[in-house]
Amino acid sequence: MRIGLIRHDETDWNAAGRLQGTTDIPLNARGVSQAQDAASFVRADEWAAVYCSPLQRTRDTAAFFAKAIGADAPRILPEVIERSFGELEGEPVYRDDGTRTDLDHPTVEPESAVVDRVLAALRELARVHPDEHVLVITHGSVVRLVLQHILGRKAPRISNLGYSELETADAPSGFVVRVANGYPLSR
Questions:
Q1: Known catalytic residue: 89?
Q2: Does the annotation count 8 as an active-site position?
Q3: CA-CA distance, 95 to 19, in Å (whole number)?
Q4: How many CB atoms lie under 10 A from the CB of residue 171?
Q5: How far apart are CA 82 and CA 62, in angstroms?
Q6: pTM (two decimals)
Q7: In the list 6, 69, 137, 182, which could disulfide-bond 62, CB 3.0-4.6 Å?
Q8: Given 10, 46, 79, 82, which residue is catalytic?
């Protein structure tokens, strides 16, 4: 069983370099166009279903992928919602001096909480679809933190529409990483 993790496409806050978190920002015109194009490359016979976060940017991206594979409407999977950045949502990702905004803030959801909730949801998908492959349209931080946890090392930045792939395995997390942000990992 494989799970394809795809980050939603561009929003105005992505383009402006702002922390989005759980703020419900829709795709911009470029994001819609690119999501349509990317979905056209997905092989319909490979995927059984499409799941997504409850936020509009993932629901819109997921709709293009579901249509491309001839699946039912995307199913909402609340646990794969983006990490909450609390009071920092809307703030620039990078400061004027080029350093990244410090996420060590009491209102920011802990990384471990994100990993725990997302892995639990992905394990449930593996249980429900043991002999099928599914796509999950989610968020950059979600994918990056899950990859880091499974790989045991720093994961790459996840680009808009970046594709990563997990495969069920007898491993502590229940998965191994086959593709990280478009880059195949050796087996």
A1: no
A2: yes
A3: 12
A4: 11
A5: 15
A6: 0.96
A7: 137
A8: 82
